[in-house]
User: Fold 6-carboxy-5,6,7,8-tetrahydropterin synthase from Dethiosulfatarculus sandiegensis.
Amino acid sequence: MYELTVLGKFAAAHSLRNFKGKCEDLHGHNWKIEVVVTGTELDKADLLMDFGDLKALMNQALDRLDHKYLNELPPFDQLNPSSEQIAKHLFSTIAQGLPSQVTMKSVSAWESDNAKATYLGE
Ligand SMILES: Nc1nc2c(c(=O)[nH]1)N=C([C@H](O)[C@H](O)COP(=O)(O)OP(=O)(O)OP(=O)(O)O)CN2
Ligand SMILES: [Zn+2]
Assistant:
């Protein structure tokens, strides 16, 4: 089994609905994102998949969030833009673009240097 990890980042504003504290107010974060995929079959170049292709898929998903007010952007107009929901959203978005021999393992969203949420699938 092989595992690849790529890192990305985006900056955005959010507010957490029903959060009884300061995070209910509008504020922003520089999220750091970790995407981890796995698979067993290597291609003719002995790659599970090209890091560049995986980064391109990730960055396409992150570009949609970058410098936005997340609460106005689907699905976060309905779901709270917590780091948990951001990780889950990126997991399903990026998974749709993976080649058939590659499986999404996890997406982690670091909200600060010392706090992250990870989505591992159902
Ligand atoms: N499990 C989660 N907990 C919290 C989330 C989250 O997405 N998942 N998000 C927040 C807020 O976004 C909030 O902005 C974080 O604020 P806080 O915890 O106070 O952290 P700070 O960046 O202000 O750093 P300090 O450690 O307090 O200095 C809250 N919880
Ligand atoms: Zn926040």
Notes: The chain has a mean pLDDT of 97. The chain has one domain: 2-119. The helical segments are 51-65, 83-95.
